[in-house]
Write a structure and sequence with these properties.
This protein is of the alpha/beta class. The chain is built from 2 helices and 4 strands. A hairpin with a 2-residue loop joins β1 and β2.
Amino acid sequence: MSEVVLEQQPDGYRVRGELSFDTVAQLLGRSPVHGAQLRVDLGGVSRTDSAGLALLVSWMREARHAGCDIRFSNVPPQLLAIARVSGFDRLLPVAAP
């Protein structure tokens, strides 16, 4: 089974591993949303699919309800392509590099 890890960092969180249908369940219930601002570094994601995008959208929804400004950095090209095809690319809060 593939694995995905959510690691706390000094400036937010880092996701490492595969973010896919096989792994997103490992992160359900482990929302990183807290505080006024949150940065989630996706640079450690090795592979993703639409389930990965669904997880990010879920975190975005939680952040909005909590009044938290969430930003994703180092978004893999594969995830950006999925977001573009599904129309979420305009809604995905991507941090400047």
